Amino acid sequence: MKDGQTIGQWLNWDFKINGDLDIRNKDNELIYTEQSNQSWAKWEYDSQGNRVYFEDSTGVWIKYEYDSQGNQIYFECSNEYWVKSEYDSKGNEIYLENSNGIIIDNRPKTCEGKVVEIEGVKYKLVKQ
Asked: Do 41 and 33 touch, CB atoms closer than 8 A?
């Protein structure tokens, strides 16, 4: 392919006869589509079938990351917006932070290592 050439142009795809150009991977997931106006979009997936990347001909792109349980833990797009998340072992979202400054923290808190003072005596808390 030449620089700036779409896959449809490279294939000499006849959109009037064939319609839109759609390419799918072995799992039948759409990984590329192109229309007659040369607009296109592409997707990438990880080995678990999670979408990890999207891009289109207007310059929009989106990145995704997942934990080992398949929970989306990161999202970032071309408009500089991003979101980070954490999940507990049951798949419940326990932490969320985004580029707008929003933070929702429901992670379990531990008292281990904290010092409390009772009647002038300091006690260090330990886990038993």
From this structure: yes
Domain count, the chain: 1
Global model pTM greater than 0.70: yes
**Looking at residue 112, what is its pLDDT?**
72
CB 82 within 8 A of CB 63: no
**Residue of 74, 40, 38, 42 lying closest to 55 (CA atoms):** 42
Q: Where in the sequence is the domain holding 111, given as residue range(s)?
A: 7-124
Strand positions, DSSP E, the chain: 21-24, 30-34, 40-45, 51-56, 61-66, 72-77, 82-87, 93-98, 103-105, 115-118, 121-124
Q: Is residue 77 part of a domain?
A: yes
CB contact at 8 A, 84 and 72: no
